[in-house]
Amino acid sequence: THVGMRQFNVVLLGAGGVGKSALTVRFVKDQFLDHYDPTIEEEYRRTITVDNELTSLEVLDTAGAEQFTSLNEVYIKAGRGFILVFSLTQEASLKEVENIRQQIYQIKGGGTNVPIVVVGTKLDLQSEREVQHATIQSLASRWNLPFYETSAKRNWHVNDVFEDIVRQMRERYPPE
Ligand code: GDP
Ligand code: MG
Question: Which of 30, 86, 122, 163 has the fewest CB atoms found within 10 Å of its own CB?
Answer without folding.
Answer: 30
